[in-house]
């Protein structure tokens, strides 16, 4: 067996993801491929049972979109990590229509006495006594940042066209870009929750809430660092986070050379995927909340100088998006997933327990855990968040001791690295072509 064949076969998935290597790709295509691979018979699959949740869609406490997006797929992992109590399981059984005739495509296990189910029970018990009043903090910080961003856009709108290469223009654009990036990162906390208005503020960046629930949650959170992880494969072939046969000197030089360009185009690429889906896809890719991104140019136009025209408005808008893209990718790829100590597609998997695999796929970065602001903007408490994504970011620090105690019970090591280490580590991982076989 060649190393490339081993890379594809040693995987969480039993089948190489359909459409993964298609040139025209995106969240809509990922879902289409999952419908082919998941053996869900056009319904919703959880473990080995099939459910028809059509009538439950308008009743779903988390909002309609979750179920609309995932129809026809296996939602076992999402169901397990988003529902801590037994109540959702009882409700789910009311919609069971049969048993799946084919095995699951994913090798994850959820044994009652295994690490994840045990930790889930402990976390569920601990959640009864945590201080939930702290959940107001992310809301306040988010709202202040939103106001600050809108004010910074007004400052940008006041700059005359002949000042574009002047510090009087560049500084406000950078500030607006940084505030927008913070806003996108903060909206991530609300993206994982039941539908709420704050999750839509991320759309100011040209991203889309519905796409991000596929790109980030259903894909990345469930299958991190694998071929099924859109966040990992999104940068191919420029950044190859997954160890591959060809990572020669040419690739290494090219990956560094295009680094800045890839950074500046991140949010534009999120929009590009939806445009491709509109022209070549079979599913709807644009929704009403896509209009949110036009708030920024509308504000620039209405508050700008008398000489403002559409071209000038577009230039200023795109400059803010570019600045935000750079800041966002710097934070996005340094969240502790891509280091040479974390497991990636092709590395030997010693356990398929859902929780243990997640622990092996991410590092805890103490520098990102300092306070609620760093947790929101630098994706702090990433290990706990990866395991239980619907729990508010402000509550996660109160659960750390429970996680540590359960890890000790199962003799599981929590991977750790510094913020600087995660930055250096992502470059090392980009260049790693050795598969970890026979070593944890």
UniProtKB/TrEMBL annotation:
<dbReference type="Pfam" id="PF00173">
    <property type="entry name" value="Cyt-b5"/>
</dbReference>
<dbReference type="InterPro" id="IPR053100">
    <property type="entry name" value="Cytochrome_b5-related"/>
</dbReference>
<comment type="similarity">
    <text>Belongs to the cytochrome b5 family.</text>
</comment>
<keyword id="KW-0812">Transmembrane</keyword>
<dbReference type="GO" id="GO:0020037">
    <property type="term" value="F:heme binding"/>
</dbReference>
<dbReference type="InterPro" id="IPR001199">
    <property type="entry name" value="Cyt_B5-like_heme/steroid-bd"/>
</dbReference>
<keyword id="KW-0472">Membrane</keyword>
<dbReference type="InterPro" id="IPR036400">
    <property type="entry name" value="Cyt_B5-like_heme/steroid_sf"/>
</dbReference>
<keyword id="KW-1133">Transmembrane helix</keyword>
<keyword id="KW-0408">Iron</keyword>
<feature type="domain" description="Cytochrome b5 heme-binding">
    <location>
        <begin position="1"/>
        <end position="101"/>
    </location>
</feature>
<protein>
    <recommendedName>
        <fullName>Cytochrome b5 heme-binding domain-containing protein</fullName>
    </recommendedName>
</protein>
<dbReference type="InterPro" id="IPR018506">
    <property type="entry name" value="Cyt_B5_heme-BS"/>
</dbReference>
<keyword id="KW-0349">Heme</keyword>
<feature type="transmembrane region" description="Helical">
    <location>
        <begin position="278"/>
        <end position="301"/>
    </location>
</feature>
<feature type="transmembrane region" description="Helical">
    <location>
        <begin position="140"/>
        <end position="157"/>
    </location>
</feature>
<feature type="transmembrane region" description="Helical">
    <location>
        <begin position="313"/>
        <end position="333"/>
    </location>
</feature>
<keyword id="KW-0479">Metal-binding</keyword>
<feature type="transmembrane region" description="Helical">
    <location>
        <begin position="169"/>
        <end position="191"/>
    </location>
</feature>
<dbReference type="GO" id="GO:0046872">
    <property type="term" value="F:metal ion binding"/>
</dbReference>
């Amino acid at each position: 067996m060649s190393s490339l064949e081993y890379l594809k076969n040693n995987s969480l998935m039993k089948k190489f993801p359909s459409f993964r290597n298609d040139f025209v790709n995106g969240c809509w295509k990922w879902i289409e491929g999952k419908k082919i691979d998941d053996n869900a018979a056009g319904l919703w699959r959880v473990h080995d049972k099939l459910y028809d949740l059509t009538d439950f869609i308008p009743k779903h406490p988390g909002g309609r979109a979750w179920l609309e997006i995932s129809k026809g797929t296996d939602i076992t992992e999402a169901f397990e990590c988003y529902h801590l109590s037994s109540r959702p399981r009882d409700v789910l059984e009311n919609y069971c229509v049969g048993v799946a005739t084919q095995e699951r495509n994913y090798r994850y296990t959820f044994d009652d006495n295994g690490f994840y189910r045990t930790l889930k029970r402990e976390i569920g018990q601990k959640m009864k006594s945590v201080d939930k009043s702290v959940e107001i903090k992310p809301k306040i910080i988010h709202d202040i940042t939103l106001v600050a961003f809108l004010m910074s856009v007004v400052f940008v709108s006041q700059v005359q066209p002949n000042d574009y290469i002047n510090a009087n223009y560049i500084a406000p654009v950078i500030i607006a870009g940084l505030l927008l990036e913070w806003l996108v990162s903060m909206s991530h906390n609300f993206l994982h929750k039941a539908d709420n208005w704050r999750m839509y503020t991320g759309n100011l960046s040209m991203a889309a809430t519905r796409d991000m629930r596929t790109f980030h949650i259903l894909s990345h959170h469930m299958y991190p660092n694998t071929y099924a992880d859109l966040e990992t494969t999104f940068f191919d072939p420029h950044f190859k986070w997954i160890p591959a046969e060809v990572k020669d000197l040419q690739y290494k030089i090219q990956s560094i050379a295009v680094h800045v360009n890839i950074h500046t185009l991140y949010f534009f690429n999120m929009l590009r995927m939806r445009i491709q889906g509109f022209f070549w896809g079979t599913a709807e890719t644009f929704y009403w909340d896509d209009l949110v991104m036009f708030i920024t140019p509308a504000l620039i136009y209405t508050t700008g100088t008398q000489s403002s025209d559409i071209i000038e408005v577009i230039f200023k808008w795109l400059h803010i998006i570019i600045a935000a893209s750079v800041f966002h990718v710097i934070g996005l790829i340094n969240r502790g997933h891509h280091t040479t100590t974390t497991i990636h597609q092709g590395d030997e998997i010693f356990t398929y327990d859902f929780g243990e695999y997640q622990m092996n796929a991410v590092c805890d970065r103490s520098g990102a855990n300092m306070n609620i602001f760093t947790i929101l903007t630098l994706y702090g408490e990433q290990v706990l968040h990866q395991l239980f994504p619907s729990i508010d970011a402000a509550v996660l620090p109160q659960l750390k001791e429970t996680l540590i105690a359960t890890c000790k019970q199962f003799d599981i090591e929590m991977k750790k690295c510094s913020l600087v280490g995660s930055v250096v580590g992502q470059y090392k991982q980009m260049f790693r072509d050795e598969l970890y076989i026979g070593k944890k």
